[in-house]
Amino acid sequence: MKNGLKIESLTPALSRLTGEGESFAVSDENLWLDLPDGHSQIRNRPIAVPSPIGWERVRVRAGRLSIILFALICLTFRTFCADAEYKQVRIETLTNAVRVRLPLTDVTGKVRVKEKSSDGFGLPVAPSKTILGKKHYLEWQIGYDIPNTNSPSVVPEIKFLRNGETKYGHELSKIIFEAVRIGLLSTNDLVREIEALKKIRPTEFEESQPVQVETATNTMTDGFQSTVQRLPQFTKTTPHGWVQIQLKQKQHAVGYQAMVYVCLPLDEVLTPDGLPRKAGPAKSKETVYYDFTRENAAFLLDIIHAFGLASRQHNEDMAHILGKILETSASR
Ligand code: ADE
What we know:
Layout: E1 7-8, H1 12-18, H2 40-44, E2 47-48, H3 52-87, E3 90-93, E4 98-103, E5 111-115, E6 123-124, E7 136-140, E8 145-146, E9 154-162, E10 165-170, H4 172-181, H5 187-199, E11 212-219, E12 225-230, E13 233-238, E14 241-249, E15 256-265, E16 287-292, H6 297-310, H7 312-330
Parallel strand pairs: 1-2
Antiparallel strand pairs: 3-4, 4-16, 5-6, 5-7, 7-15, 8-10, 9-10, 11-12, 13-14, 14-15
The structure holds adenine.
The site of adenine (ADE) has 6 residues, from β15.
């Protein structure tokens, strides 16, 4: 027994895993291993091994744990999908309207609730804690293209190249495409807009407007000097909403970029059953609807024009998209 290793019952730590105090008695004869002389320390230390019943419990508990883990992953995935679905702007075509579904409580997304302000920039509000009514509007950073066809708001028929990359029409493109299809806009409207886009001179692009930085002549207290940045903003107001072009600092590059926002007054939006939304705080995951109809179809042309004014790239993209819509409507 001198060079042997004694195998004993469980240590308390392991026994907790396998079941309280479960060990099994094994005769001493089976519990000694032959080890070389250099391992005398190990030789003298007892090793814990769970009993066969203990291992079975470990196996059962590990099984239960994997089921719980799997259920948790499924639940997280479902929540993630439901959240992504909620945040998505959806476009559906009715007989006489193109209806847009927008999320009301996605405060970090592309659709935000703001309170009107005299400077025109608006103040973001917490939708579920504010009585949303006449003073409020939705500021929607509308998109018009996407690099794949994975979104329900894509138009696969509108496919074009930008700097060698394939793009598909999305959101605004789909609204215009559907508006022409159901007759809210005519092909002549698009032809006229293409001509208007061509007439915008490069110096007029919002992106080429200088950003002014004013430095105050007087030095402020404690040696801090004040400087003020003036960022230009263009707004086109219509009776059913307004469209804005704002210059913003580029997020991942140097310089400024022109952003286009469609602003929809909250007293113009509808509930899922198509009725005007009553003033009140947003409910959890509330969605609202905005209809483009014959009455406000000209607003769509203003949105296209805003992109045309924003930058050379947006101007070219709009011309491509309108051209594609004309092509597809001619072949219908
Ligand atoms: N590109 C696509 N959508 C845009 C938007 N709303 N503003 C600026 N650039 C865009």
